[in-house]
Here is the input.
Amino acid sequence: MMKQLFPKQHVMGFIFSMVLSVVALAVITFDMSYKMGMAILLVTAIAQALVQLLLFMHIGESEDKGTLYTNIIYAVFVGVVTILGTLFTMIWGYQIY
Amino acid sequence: MESHEQQFLILNEPMILAAMISIVVGGLSLVIGVTYFKKWGYLWREWITTVDHKKIGVMYILVALVMLFRGGVDALLMRGQTAMPENGLLDAQHYNEIFTTHGVIMILFMAMPFIIGLMNVVTPLQIGARDVAFPRLNSVSFWLFAVGAGLFNISFIIGGSPDAGWSAYFPLASLEFSPTVGNNYYAISLQIAGLGTLATGINFLVTILKMRAPGMTLMKMPMFTWSILITNVIIVFAFPVLTVALALMTMDRQFGTKFFTMQDGGMDMLWANLFWVWGHPEVYIVILPAFGIYSEIISTFARKNLFGYKSMVVSMVAISLLSFLVWAHHFYTMGQGVMVNSFFSITTMLIAVPTGVKIFNWLLTLHKGKITFTTPMLYSLAFIPIFTIGGVTGVMLAMASADYQYHNTMFLVAHFHYVLIPGTVFAVIAGFHFWFPKVFGFRLNEKLGKLAFWFITISFNVAFFPLFILGLNGMTRRMYTYSESTGYGPLNMLSFLGAVGLGIGFIILVYNLYWSIRYSPRDETGDPWDARSLEWATHGPVPFYNFARIPKINELDAFWYAKRNNKSLYDDRPIEKIHMPNNSGMPFLMSGAFFGAGFCLVFSWWIPTIIFTILIFVFMALRSFEKDHGYYVSVEEIERIERELGGEK
Ligand code: HEM
Ligand SMILES: [Cu+2]
Here is the structure.
């Protein structure tokens, strides 16, 4: 009975996301190379996103796959456009005549 | 923070003092009035704790109307100041504060909530649903928005308003150049209201995708519902960018980080970039629902099917993607290379194509229609040519090299008012007149409505057309005064007269509300316009459960065809008991905690901020341990209500 009531997934997710945040924080508290720092941030960020999607938002438990995939494709599109577009306008394409 | 200008209460400005006194007097008389008429219980039970989408919608619209008034007074003051050369109505600082609050209020606390209000009232009815997917969350959304708007509005008496423009560009908006708390207010109040909007986005997305009446496939949805679906997709993907940008702004201003600084690895232009990554989709958030409203009104009063339904849907989906690809057109002059500017020029011109498609759809819907000229229809008809002027000047601005001439001039100000006012403002007013009888059971007076329409439309052009010319003559925006030798005087005076006319138009509109509440004949049919979509299939005013039985749909405009063919939308199912959500005071109280936390954070009072923040989490924890399964309305109760409303429809 207790076992069913205890939200194991959510508590695990909570712990994971805390740990991942602390690891990301290490990038500024410890001295490390730029590349190393970026690598750590990238990995923890992706892991964090997966924790949120899988453990809290229960992605994959939905019947309606069509809506799910449309949403994911849309989100990836907007994310990629925002990041690459920002690099494009602010750095790569900045003041090149 | 150590600046000398910093003051807690602003007492040395006569105009602000007068505003403060009138707010205190108004507030006190409201409290005394409610107490005298013993309405506190009623307010609490029926409105503050409500989770009913219709009532939440009405509250959104009420706040939006108040904000329209506030933003309108700001506008009149600005136009008054610039009406004559070297006028002394406002000083430079004051002018800066007023154009900033005007912009923020009009876009975020007037246009957005007006649209969200209409979408709350109408969307669940149009898809034959009992409420939104998450009624309690909907109430949270409203109260977060209300609290955000409140926080932003008190800034001008407590601590001083933001003064770096509605776009709050860095480095101007940084602590160094804007040392007062004004821009803290900006960041935090928009943050709180934005959370509410984000929740609304998710809520309506789920509602439309999951709660349509049986038989209503996506391609049988009314066009307004389609526009709301797309709008909410854009909300869900655009608002997180604003959330992040505002959080970074707060950290820069209050915690000493250097995201947007000019040295130490920060980049001031990144703010402009992030702001417009959100900002351009935002203009589509306020314009797409307007397109939906016009589509409903035009097909209703032309008595014809909407021409090119499919192309309308496709063009909206295209806009939802393209709107994320054009943002840099807001800062062509910031130093990007030719590649960047050409790319964004092209995408911007591309987005004009689906918008143009819609104009033709409406025109062809009107073609050979039996048109009735009601007030909502007049606004829709006026919208088409005026909005086209806005669109054409938009394409002019889209050309990067030409924009070096237009950028930050009155030409731009004229352009965006030419899209925002006929686009969004006319649409919400038209929608307000159109759906008013659905919510209150009587129509607004047509004579007064038309009088207001003519005042608003003509004055709008008088107020804003001169600004195109002034802009081309070189008058820049955000300019608090000018010398007589510039020759800007006469056209500015003309524009001021137009602004006064607009003010009169809005007063007639509000007077119409008062007049109609008192004298307008009650409508018994629930369908006073002989309209097409499902919201008209139930009674007006709508009973709290919306539909006694959920209708079955087999085509677009099923209600219209049911009326024409004397069919019923209900097969012979018996009425069943209805499951409804319970009211709750928690959203209101939690938003109060948000207000406390936000207010203390503005002034960097850390301890109270932390206490209020903990309180927010306490409310969330309480919610997750709460057991609330709603309640049932019995069949007898439903039958009694339906009989009182004159029999089920
Ligand atoms: C009701 C009639 C209105 C009048 C007379 C009016 C007038 C003005 C004026 C005089 C300015 C400042 C120009 C300058 O000196 O730079 C301005 C700016 C602005 N207005 Fe309006 N306006 C009106 C309605 C609206 C509406 C309905 C919206 C949006 C839905 C809106 C959005 C803005 C924005 C975003 C700015 C830019 C603020 C900034 O520079 O930071 N206005 N308006
Ligand atoms: Cu734009």
In short: The domain at 2-584+628-644 of chain B is CATH 1.20.210.10 (Cytochrome C Oxidase; Chain A). The first strand of chain B starts at residue 578 and ends at 580. Residues 110 and 166 of chain B are 14 Å apart (CA to CA).
